[in-house]
Amino acid sequence: MNPVRSLSCILFLFVCLASAGPLIAQDNQEDQPHIQPRKEEKEKRPARPSATPNPDSPTTPTPATSGNSKSESPDDIANRPNDPPPGMPDAEPAGESSSKDSQIDLNAGPDTRSPISVAPSEYPFDPHRAQKDVEVGNFYLKQRNYRAALERFHDALLYKPKDAEATFGLAVTQEKLELLLESYRNYKGYLALLPEGPMAREAQEGVARLEPRIGNSNLGTSAATQAAAKSEEGQKLLAANDYAAARLDFEEALRLDPDNADTHFHLAQSLQGLQQLDPARMHYQKYLELKPKGPLAADARKNLNQIRDILGK
Length: 313
Description:
Serine Threonine Protein Phosphatase 5, Tetratricopeptide repeat; mainly alpha
């Protein structure tokens, strides 16, 4: 063989081997130093964010969403119905109160709305309401619930001051409650309103029945009037279950008329309502001493028995 050709072939083979060496080296990845740190790079890879944020790591603000975890397009964000316009404060959560609702705007102008109607200081004339009170008062009177009847007849006269039927019903109720002076005046008042009215005869009988009892009183006119007025005020309060205020009126009435049996009975009712049973027992006994056969004697004995069962004496 030609020595020159042989040398050329050797040189060609050497060049080919030299150029193919890096490619062969790349196929053997175990021998390359840059392949070894793969495991370390995997360990240094940042972890995926969890649902609970790490308080030590800084947070970046994220745009508010309307309860949808999916990413939204600009069109979806623009068409969200519950989002406030840009620059406006967020709406209050549903079902929660806000202190802004009760704030007063000191810079606001005068209120042009119509004012709320205020109840008048005096009772308006209302005959329809007065008639209803009279009907209820008569019902209570038949049921012998005299305190409730007294309150209803008084209410009827507030809305119709010269109602003859309410005046007569009040006179009957006051007589049942032994408010003799006031009952006498209301019988006379009915006759002044309707001298020939349907209850005129009963009113005349009431006047004749009460005149001797009032005339035989040892009290002066002024003291009798004051005692009767205080007793009637106490009856109104007793009908409203205001026992403390009723007690004060009955005690004042007894100061003016110490031997009034009916006032002792009503004072005992007030004390019983206040759960002051021992003094209530004494006033019931005082009524029975003054009027052992009086119209309220049966009720006095019944209440006495109840108190004795509680107190044991």
